[in-house]
Amino acid sequence: LGYVEIPDEWVKVADSLTDEERERFIIEDNINFGKWDWDVLANRFGIRPVADFETLNYQIMTNLDASTEATITDETAIGFIPCYRLPFLSLFHADCMEIMKQYPDKYFDLAIVDPPYGNNDAIGLKDNASGKKQATLRTNYRQFENNAPTEEYFSELKRVSKNQIVWGANFFGLKGGYICWNKFGTAFGQAELAYCSKINSVRVFEYVWNGMLQQDMKNKEQRIHPTQKPVQLYKWLLKEFANSGDRVLDTHLGSGSIAIACWDMGFDLTAYEIDKEYFDAACKRLENHKKQLTLW
User: 17-53, pLDDT tens digit by residue?
Assistant: First the structure.
């Protein structure tokens, strides 16, 4: 069951287990003994490594209710990662740099990421999380640390994913194929540019996203994050560049638009958000979206 030496009684027990029971047994056994077998847990079963289960270093919370927080007996545990789990979706409040280090090479099929562009970007927005003005009711967000990712980030991103779509390509100097999202904007730019490793040309997606104006005004999205992108943009990206069964990674969850798109389209998503308030807001947004779907 993943160890060099396997007691005979374990083999007898394993022979009587279903595939699902066998998988759970191996996971729990690794948890209890503080060991981690990459071959069995990651490759053989195709499940997510370290970040999804209680291990020597982490304790996982399975939903947003702190009262259901999982327990871990190992004295070396250093805390927990709040995690919002749904079938095919795992959203973590965590630093992506710390977690990516724990994944094997090329674990994810496609990374779709929107990291901060840095202080030289065109955002320049102010907090808009309080007040009673109509604009505030449409947009409820606050500023965040706008620090551009380091070379180490891009190196790790390429290591853990087979292909990448990275928004802000013009700020990071990324060269290759590009995706141009024409949002018909004004003050903050007419369009946004993403690097795409899967193409050598330029693809264009047009979708109005300009202040209070949105392409689909009947199903208008409330803005909860200053760099929020529309769900339809992510659905288009998944349709055009992802394949059925792909594991998708997002290192900067932000508003959670990609989570809604993956949920609706059935894609396996692992996503991280370092800001606790935005993480909670994104999870709440996804939960509200699910509730809306059940009404139809």
Answer: 777 666 666 655 554 444 444 444 444 444 443 344 3
- Residue-wise pLDDT tens digits, 192-203: 999 999 999 999
CA distance 149 to 117: 8
pLDDT, tens only, 259-285: 999 999 999 999 999 999 999 999 999
Token pair 């292909």: residue: 163
**Are 168 and 176 in contact, with CB atoms under 8 Å apart?**
no
Distance CA(207)–CA(111), nearest Å, equals 22
Quote the pLDDT of residue 78: 29
**Run of H or E including 89:** strand 89-92
Tell me which amino acid residue 136 is.
T
Summarize pLDDT for 214-223 with one digit per residue, the tens: 988 988 998 8
Q: How far apart are CA 87 and CA 269, in angstroms?
A: 10
Tracing tokens 């729990």 back to the chain, one arrives at: 28
- Cβ proximity of 270 and 78 under 8 Å: no
The pTM is what?
Answer: 0.71
Identify the pLDDT of residue 65: 36
CA distance 94 to 91: 9
User: Which pairs count as long-range contacts for 26-35, CB under 8 Å and 24+ apart, including other chains?
Assistant: 26/1, 26/2, 27/53, 29/1, 29/2, 30/2, 30/55, 31/55, 31/72, 34/74, 34/76, 35/3
Could you give the strand order of the β-sheet that contains 268-272, starting from the edge strand earlier in sequence? 59-61, 80-86, 89-92, 268-272, 247-250, 108-113, 161-167, 191-196, 177-182, 202-206
Helices (H) and strands (E) in the chain, counts: 10, 12
* Residue 77 buriedness (CB in 10 A; 0-12 / 13-18 / 19+): middle
3-state helix, strand, coil in the chain (%, to 5): 35, 20, 45
